[in-house]
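Agenda item 2: zinc ion complex prediction
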Amino acid sequence: MKTLIIIDAQNDFMPGGALAVPDGDLIVPLINKVVHEFDLVVATQDWHPQDHLSFASNHEGKKSFEKTMLNGIDQTLWPDHCVQGSKGAEFHESLDFRSVEAIFRKGMDRTVDSYSGFFDNGRRKSTGLAGYLREKQVTELFLCGLAGDFCVAYTARDALKEGFSVTLIEDAIRSLGGDSFQRIKEELLISGARTVHHSEVLS
Ligand code: VGL
Ligand code: ZN
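Presented output:
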């Protein structure tokens, strides 16, 4: 079972969005091209309540991109983004969603951030994604989406820990911090992940 996970391809992470990833929208046509090559396609969706404590606006005197601690975990404070039910939380309108079988939402608990599609950052709660994939006998995961240095990276690490084979579709991933994905990629390769160009996925 070859499975694609589309990570957080939402308006707020696209150019013009609240937490825009540079060139984030360039991944959309690539995802649309490869989506047909998979037996199963799932997506993750960042889905925060307005009072989420990863938002700088919910901390008196703090600014976006400042670092702080949240429940004993390092936390970057973000601009308000992907608020439940908002336009910014919706998927990019050009993304071909017809073959997406399930959407796993994350970041609903205001007291903990949730970058990975599998667990919150404190590993307190599972989203159920690992169980869902196992039930469907998935072994091979391909990852694409936003942002490479946060939600894609955390999802990849957890996927490897959960025993899945992980392939990053490199050109269908964009990061918030420019070349920060380079280091993360090296780390993930050492941990057993593989990287491919989207054209290598096409049959
Ligand atoms: C993300 C920061 C905050 C992501 C989500 O999707 O990478 N980054 N929330
Ligand atoms: Zn978020």
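Discussion summary: The chain is about 20% helix and 25% strand.
Owner for follow-up: CH.
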